[in-house]
Design brief:
CATH architecture of one domain: Alpha Horseshoe
CATH class of one domain: Mainly Alpha
Largest sheet: none
Radius of gyration: 28 Å
Oligomer: single chain
CATH superfamily of one domain: Tetratricopeptide repeat domain
Shape: elongated
Strand content: under 5%
Structural class: mainly alpha
Length: about 350
């Protein structure tokens, strides 16, 4: 009897933060303003308070610096970032950063900061324009390259995103974020060979990059190369023992290959890390059934149902469990009926339920 089991596709391997660079250091080789001593002192105080999380104090100090020297571009820029990341006031942030750019239009960091604010305002076109200007002024500005690539990726402009990551790698060949993201994008386009190339480069450079190993495992598994997939998942777990989806996928491979004890260990690890993972309970129930641990199996099936009552695969497998292993046809029929009510399709189940209802 073939079991119907959910094969989850983990998501979230490329969910990314904006990566705000809050330092106020400037790319080398660019001119800075020459503020008065008092303005510079207030500016340095504002920067320190900002780093310490005293946002109100930072605003006060930076305003004093600007009062002392209204053309102090760096103070306007930093004040904008305090408004943005410290006080969540994007409108005020844009006003101050724009003023900094007016005073010093050749400062790439200010354009970068402006782009970060525009992203949170839902203004991707303005963010793109600001990032491109930052890169134009400072072609080796890694954060600007990476943020531009992520902007394209979030907006589903895959080819532009790939080009942006490639541009970043031309600046810094070992940028791990760019290598991983390229691998993810290539995989999503069905370009397994290209994805493997960059991910192998990444994991060679950083053997502890769990997500890189995990994605290599996903690619190998999709290509039905289960031996390397197993090894990649093991390496992902070695690098990050709490990587739930690596445990789950490894357990699924073990279960499919008849290695039930190994599968049980992996699914138990999943449940230890994420008790609400219904699919892991279901798969563990199937494994326990195969191992003859029927009481444990029934408990796992029931837990899966409690967590996801509408998961059709659980009703199907619990029906089989009651019919073939517990020899309780009444309970089996209850599960089969629920399976069909939820939209499940199986000729055998339909025939059994139909015969009883005639």
């Amino acid at each position: 009897m073939v079991m119907k089991l959910p094969r989850c596709t983990p998501v979230g391997l490329v969910v990314m933060a904006l990566g705000v660079a809050l330092c106020v250091d400037r790319p080398a080789g660019l001119a800075q303003t020459a503020p008065t001593d008092s303005a510079k002192q207030e500016y340095e105080q504002g920067r320190k308070l900002f780093k310490d999380g005293d946002y109100a104090g930072a605003v006060a100090a930076l305003k004093k610096a600007i009062d002392s020297n209204p053309r102090f571009a760096e103070a306007h820029d930093l004040l904008g970032m305090v408004y943005f990341s410290g006080q969540k006031q994007p409108t005020e942030a844009v006003e101050e950063i724009t003023k900094a750019i007016e005073l010093n239009p050749n400062e790439p960091q200010a354009y970068y900061h402006l782009a970060l604010v525009h992203q949170t305002q839902g203004k991707p076109a303005e963010a793109e324009q600001a990032l491109k200007r930052a890169i134009e002024l400072s072609p080796r500005f890694e954060d600007a390259h990476f943020t531009l690539a992520k902007l394209y990726e979030r907006n589903r402009a895959a080819e532009k995103s790939i080009q942006a990551y490639r541009a970043l790698l031309a600046v810094k060949p070992g940028h791990q974020g760019a290598l991983y993201s390229l691998g993810y994008l290539y995989d999503s386009q069905g370009k397994g060979a290209q994805a493997r190339e960059v991910l192998e480069q990444l994991t060679k450079m950083n053997p502890r990059h769990a997500d890189g190993w995990y994605l290599l495992g996903r690619i190998a598994e999709k290509e039905n190369r289960l031996t390397p997939a197993t090894e990649f998942y093991r390496l992902a777990i070695a690098a990050k023992p709490d990587l739930v989806d690596a445990h789950y996928n490894l357990g699924f491979i073990y279960r499919s290959n008849g290695k039930q004890d190994e599968a049980a260990k992996q699914f138990n690890d999943v449940i230890r890390l994420k008790p609400e993972y219904a699919e892991a309970h279901l798969n563990l129930g199937v494994v326990y059934t195969t191992l003859g641990k029927l009481d444990d199996a029934e408990k796992e099936y029931e837990t899966a149902l409690a967590l996801k009552p509408a998961m059709v695969e659980t009703h199907y497998n619990l029906g089989i469990f009651y019919e073939l292993h517990k020899k309780d046809m009444a309970k089996a029929l209850a599960q089969y009926r629920k399976y069909l009510e939820l939209g499940g399709k199986d000729e055998r189940v339909e025939r059994i339920v139909g015969q009883v209802e005639k």
